[in-house]
Amino acid sequence: MQTKRAMILVSNDPESIRLGADDLVKSLNDALAAYELQDEVDVSTIGDVGRADILPLVIVYPEATVYGPVKAGDARYLVEEHLYKGRVATDLLAPPKQLSGHIGWLRTRKGYNPAEQRVVLERAGRIDPDDIEDYIAHSGYEALGKAVTEMTPMQVIETVEKSGLQGRGGAGFPAGRKWRFVRGAEGDKKYVICNADESEPGTFKDRVVMEGDPHQVLEALAIAAYAIGADEGFIYIRGEYGVAYQRLEKAIRQAEEFGFLGNNIFGTDFNFHLHIHAGAGAYVCGEETALIESLEGKRGEPRTRPPYPTTNGLWNKPTLVNNVETLSNVPAILRNGPEWYKAIGTPSSPGTKVYTIMGNINFSGVIEVPMGITLREVINIYAKGMKPGSTFKMAQTGGASGSIIPAALQDTPMDFESFRKAGVSLGSGALLICDQNVCIVDLVKVLLQFFRFESCGKCTPCRIGTQRSYEIVERITQGQGQLEELDKLLEMAAEMERASNCGLGQTASAPVRDMLKHFRTEVEAHIRLGICPTGVCPMVVEEEAAPA
Amino acid sequence: MPAIKSLDELKRIREEALKKKEMKTASGSIQVIVAMGTCGIAAGARDTMKSVLNYIEENKVSGVSVTQTGCIGMCEHEPIVEVVVGEQPKVYYRKVNAEVAEKIMKEHVQGGKPVESNILPLQV
Questions:
Q1: Would A236 be classed as within a structural domain?
Q2: Best exposed site among A31, A237, A447, A453 by fewest CB in 10 Å?
Q3: How many domains does the structure of chain A reveal?
Q4: CA-nearest residue of chain B to A358?
Q5: Residue B35, CA distances (Å) to A7, A123, B41 in order
Q6: CATH number of the structural domain spanning residue A384
Q7: Whole-number pLDDT of residue A99
Q8: Which residues touch B123 (CB under 8 Å, ≥6 apart)?
Q9: Could you tell me where the beta strands, DSSP code E, fall in chain B?
Q10: Same domain, A183 and A68
Q11: A148-161 per-position pLDDT tens digit
């Protein structure tokens, strides 16, 4: 097989085929033949990319230019302009997707960015985190007071269920349902744990919440404890978060003094004691069962499930584990009602999401936006565009175990359902935006390096899989790659996903699969031509560096 | 502080806290708020804070309260300092190192003229 310099992808979902995608493929092949480009350019097909407005659509790689709608009659023009003359066929360019009309926004836009929406970060950066009175002055502890004096635990759970709140740690499990499981579990004692072991590279949203508004986390934990019937709770915080640890510790002392934690909260017979525990820097301890093991004083290794923590958690008691951001939504939901919350975001994924944005963009930082906005909007509006001279190549979501999103998918609404459909993951909320100078193989190598280091070693697929995958990818960057090994990579990815004990191994292969799905041409250039198109990879075997 | 036993008590404390805040602005007093999240601290917010406090100490400035807050999401512009003079709109400053902080204290807090070079244009 000869190496191709470009690749044309044509959408072939049923709707595209109805609109003439098959004829388009044929016409493109004819046009390529007419310009004698058939040996240089490949035509292939692609499934639904979430742009129903421009079907049939055509994406031309390596530039990842998106055209649409393209008719069979346009094929010749497209081939002549883009592939023969090498410039963008402007007449056919797909329009940037308009803001989808069904995203709900809060009525008053009080954010710092044009359209930012703040629920979780409402007070962060506005109040003094060390001063409980400042929190109370901003409606603090009202939700807790309302819950314990006016609502039954079941009513609290129903409110959270009705709001449609989904877990923000990465998996998107409905929070209310989890609470109901723990409430219904049998046990003389129950625990609630806040998972604050935020260790995904590039993610620091939870830190911003804990540092800027620690009382909100405390209030939410107390509400959760009341709802599920727990009287003791833990915050398992990442060991590196020194400032957040101090602020939370101080906040707990203040809350105890004011009677929001401790015995007989708000004069009722509800008691809740909260402890804070710092992790020791293992990535795997963000996995809830490994977190529980670590909290029990054991080595941080994930447990075999079932049983799940909802029935057999900390010290074998029913335990609720929620992420900081998930919990931080709860006080606002109780204060304003589930209907208010449901109105934000999209019907299938209500609410907002906090993202940390970074990379080749003009503005890096933290944003909170409604669920359902697109990556293109994040880059153009919130990130103030790509850096001068940079064009968007891909984004890496959700830290290491997230997905790599190519340019073609940047108009997919960012909510749990749309992302699941497109086969990508929202992850934990980091968006690393990469430009044309980033090499996909190098990026994946760095991610795999992280996973092989952080794999706890308990189960074989993850322990061996991360190491062998890393070695193959490393060989590609050294110009020693073999084409057959790409299939081996995919095979290994499938095994790791199927047979790993916990989320680490199951998601560690995601970057590999995304790389081969969206950027295979670039990977093959490393192997077939022995060049790194971006010039990042050394393409020779370098002196062995000190082992990591 | 005795423990709060009812929603009404919470409401009362909330109102007191709000009143305290209002009194601060109504009396024309000046608040200097330094953003002290990890991002701020990493960018040098501790030096900024020290510089502000030093200036107050050395020049015997009165009627200024210095507090801290968390990250507002604009890590790129840290260290960020907010200055609120009485009921005037809040002014945000970006990249406030120790020298800029001193300048802000001298020209804005004492002189009443915002330091244009470091203003962060925000709609709040």
A1: yes
A2: A453
A3: 4
A4: B76
A5: 49, 13, 8
A6: 3.10.20.600
A7: 47
A8: A112
A9: 30-35, 64-69, 81-85, 91-93
A10: no
A11: 999 999 999 999 99
Positions of chain A with pLDDT lower than 70, given as ranges: 1-3, 49-50, 96-116, 543-548
Beta carbons of B17 and A142 less than 8 Å apart: no
Expressed as residue numbers, the domain containing A498 is: 442-529
Closest residue, chain B, to A258 (C-alpha)? B3
Question: Which of A110, A128, A335, A354 is the mutation pick for testing B, counting most B CBs within 10 A?
Answer: A128
Beta-bridge mates of residue A367: A355
Q: Looking at residue A487, what is its pLDDT?
A: 94
A157 with A286, same domain?
yes
**Quick check: helix, strand or coil at residue A174?**
strand
User: A486 with A425, same domain?
Assistant: no
pLDDT tens for each residue of A88-131: 888 888 876 554 445 555 444 343 444 567 889 888 888 899 99
Q: Which one of A411, A435, A459 terminates a domain?
A: A435
Contacts of B6 in chain A (CB under 8 A): 145, 149, 266-267
Q: A227 with A272: CB under 8 angstroms? A: no
Rounded to two decimals, the ipTM of the complex is 0.77
- Each of the 124 residues of chain B gets a pLDDT tens digit; together they read 678 888 888 999 899 888 887 776 666 688 899 999 899 999 999 999 999 999 999 998 888 889 999 888 888 889 999 998 887 888 999 999 999 999 999 999 998 899 999 998 765 4
- Residue A200: inside a domain: yes
| Residue that is written with structure tokens 């939410």 in the block | A220
What's the CATH number where A496 sits? 1.20.1440.230
**Which residues of chain B make contact with A266, given a CB cutoff of 8 A?**
4-7, 10
Do the domain assignments include residue A109?
Answer: no
Chain B: give the shortest CA distance to residue A126, in Å. 6
Q: Are residues A139 and A260 in the same domain?
A: yes
**Residue A70 included in any domain:** yes
| A 124-153 residues inside an 8 A Cβ radius of B | 124-131, 133-134, 136-137, 139-142, 145-146, 149-150
**In terms of domains, do A333 and A370 share one?**
no
Q: Which of A109, A118, A123, A126 to mutate to test the interface with B (most CBs of B within 10 A)?
A: A126
- Specify whether the CB–CB gap between A221 and A328 falls below 8 A: no
Q: Do A338 and A363 sit in the same domain of this protein? A: no
Distance in angstroms (rounded) separating the CA atoms of residues A30 and A187? 70
| pTM attached to this predicted model | 0.80
- What are the structural domains of chain B? 28-118 (3.40.30.10)
Q: How far apart are CA A441 and CA A474, in angstroms?
A: 8
